[in-house]
Amino acid sequence: MFIPLHDANDLKHIDRQYVTIALIVINVLIWLVTGPMASEQTAEAAILGFGYIPAVAFQYADLDPAFVVVPEQATYLTYAFLHGDFWHLAGNMLFLWVFGDNVEDAMGHLRFLAFYLACAAAGALAHGLVNMGSEAPLIGASGAISGVVAAYLMLHPKVRVWVLVLMRIPLPLPAVIPLLLWVGQQFLMLAIDREGTTSWGAHVGGIVAGLVLVVFLRRTGVPLFDRTIVTPRAVRPRSVPAIQATRLDAGGEGPGPWGKGQ
């Protein structure tokens, strides 16, 4: 439906999104080790050993002991750090890069990490509840990323987000438009596409967890449905007086999408 490119939304409480960056680096490194740099046998073993398998989690089947690497409860988290191919990885990491920093900013580093992992676990659980007897391993960060998107929607629905619509048209839109459409699509696809290769259940589980957890994990004083659009410092005209720049910070819309605090 759309690809997020950039949001004009400065960080307000942290200097840098260290957890978001660390998660992206970890996901990329794991993909390299279990994907392009691994043999087919090693890649399969990693997916079976670290992927979330509903039939095993709900005790409908047993995993061959040769492939058991971690306790089955741990796979509610480990699956979220595996990806099937480059585009699977790139899509998830792009969403995390664009939206994760401001959610981390609203929560703080440690709370955001706990939030991310909780959304991943909720995604796995929802997938399992929808496909209890499935022996196909679930992999990918989509459940966790869905939670991040849902939290961003709750925090910053009015912020301008540059998105690539239909892979062709770049548009600056209030976040509520593309994100609400995206959330609705996940619920719709869960209802009509039960046999596809995409786990819509994991997406929906992550979304529900994100909507709930952001209410409790945000910093004290961070409002939901923030209506303030912060003008990035890098694009303020040098001639603007300090008092006028302060007014822009308090709610004025910036002139463009560049200069996001990193």
Give keywords.
mainly alpha; disordered C terminus; 10 helices; 262 residues; single chain; three-stranded antiparallel β-sheet
What does this entry look like structurally?
- The chain has 262 residues and is mostly helical.
- 52% of the residues lie in helices and 7% in strands.
- It has ten helices and three strands; from the N terminus they run βαααααααββααα.
- The chain has helices at 18-34, 40-50, 54-57, 75-78, 86-107, 109-130, 142-155, 176-192, 200-217, 242-249; strands at residues 2-7, 160-165, 169-174.
- The chain has a three-stranded antiparallel β-sheet with strand order 1-2-3.
- A hairpin with a 3-residue loop joins β2 (160-165) and β3 (169-174).
- α5 runs parallel beside α7 and α6 (109-130) packs across α7 (142-155).
- 39% of the residues are buried.
